[in-house]
Specification:
The structure is a single chain. It is rod-shaped, with a radius of gyration of 46 Å. The N and C termini lie far apart (128 Å). The chain folds into two domains: 62 residues; 95 residues. The chain has seven helices and five strands. The chain is an alpha+beta fold and 200 residues long. 56% of the residues lie in helices and 18% in strands. Strands 1-2-3-4-5 form a five-stranded antiparallel sheet, covered by helices on one side.
């Protein structure tokens, strides 16, 4: 009995130590299990999201089906090789003088006057209203014309006489001005442009 009493504290101490350690181990194991469970759930959610994104109908599947459609490339090549497309482009090039100038297309006198008028209206937005009011004398006319050059005179509302010297084929144009009582003679200005850009 004495021996039991003397061993009892030791047994209790051992039991307490074992119980505490097993309890702490139990806690550690349960915490680890919880953490593993959370990690596993997060990984599962991530995998599901990846699968959903990959299988989304508007994503890569649509692109691949469009790319693999036999009609897609055929249609593109048909549009590129369609004879009507090139014919239409070439027809437009012939109809538009600006694009046909390299082929020897020549400006007519009437085209030159219309182009100079267009140039004047674009560079002076108020001019159209002034012309329509009819208060000032404003006009355009061809003053000389030969195989190479057309000269169009513009009588401005300021009474300035502006002449446009136009190369009939290239369209290169330069300007001279004469204002009676101000300039002694016709003087070339710094203004030069290509009249083909203004052919209506």
């Amino acid at each position: 009995m004495k021996m039991f009493k003397s061993i009892l504290p030791v047994i209790l101490l051992v039991l307490l130590t074992v119980g505490c350690s097993s309890q702490s181990n139990f806690k550690d194991e349960s915490e680890v299990a919880d953490e593993k469970k959370v990690i596993a759930e997060e990984e599962e959610i991530a995998q599901v999201q990846e699968i959903m994104e990959a299988e989304e109908p508007g994503a890569e599947v649509q692109e691949s089906t469009e790319a693999e459609k036999p009609g897609a490339q055929v249609q593109e090549s048909m549009e590129a090789e369609e004879p009507g497309a090139q014919v239409q482009e070439s027809k437009e090039a012939e109809d538009t003088p600006a694009k046909g100038q390299e082929k020897g297309y020549k400006l007519t006198d009437e085209m030159a006057v219309d182009a100079v008028m267009n140039y004047c209206y674009i560079n002076n937005p108020d001019l159209k209203e002034i012309v329509e009011e009819g208060v000032y004398s404003v006009y355009w006319s061809v003053v000389s014309s030969d195989e190479k050059e057309i000269v169009v005179l513009y009588r401005s509302y300021t009474a300035a006489l502006v002449r446009y010297y136009i190369d009939r084929i290239s369209g290169e144009t330069y300007e001279t001005q004469f204002v009676e009582g101000i300039t002694p003679e016709e003087e070339r200005s710094d203004e030069s442009f290509n009249i083909w850009d203004y052919v209506p």
